[in-house]
Design a protein that fits this description.
Strand content: 25-35%
Order of helices and strands: EHEHEHEHEHEEEHE
Structural class: alpha+beta
Number of helices: 6
Strand order of the largest sheet: 4-3-5-2-6-7-8-1-9
Shape: elongated
Distance between the termini: 13 Å
Largest sheet: 9 strands, antiparallel
Amino acid sequence: MSVDVAYPVFHTPDPALALRVARQLLSVGDQDDAKVDVDVELPRAEDVLLILRAMPDASFRKEDVDDWVRDTSDPTGLHAGVHGPQLSTDTAFLSRHLPLWASMLDQPVGSIEDTFTAVASKYVAEIRWNSLGWPEVAEHDLYADSKHAEVSVLFNAATREMDEWSNGHTVLVHVRRRSGEGYEERHASWLAGQIGRTVIGPPQFS
């Protein structure tokens, strides 16, 4: 089974600039089948309500394995995820289950990114565009790829696991892992170079 690897190509304290650079990177590939996912960690009840107002169709979930073990019946529905309109807005209820995560998956490109960046970039969050198509570049011995052609922005997160706070926002380009020394970094470097950027850090594996 093939997997991807992501390389950071831009870092900034400005979330809108990170989004703009990510969109430039998207333009290098084929976007005909592309979709976008967003995900954000919400530490306070008022944060949950803010995201609910801005993204009423989001799904809200709890990522607490210990809680799942304690109560496998999932009476709140938060283990599986609760659609925004069904989420309780009672702050006492929300406070008992923090942090919550909010996500929207498989959205049309351009439909949610600006709103999400405006409201979620102060938290640990991610925008990820998938199902792109990286072109073949025969003169550089680079293969076309669609399965692992992705771009992501990490807001305030050091790694793709999103489990460590990091000041600033990072744009990553994702490519397929292949045998052959240095292929993935060459591919990522070529893609970044098309928008005047370079690889600026070590690879991040899924």
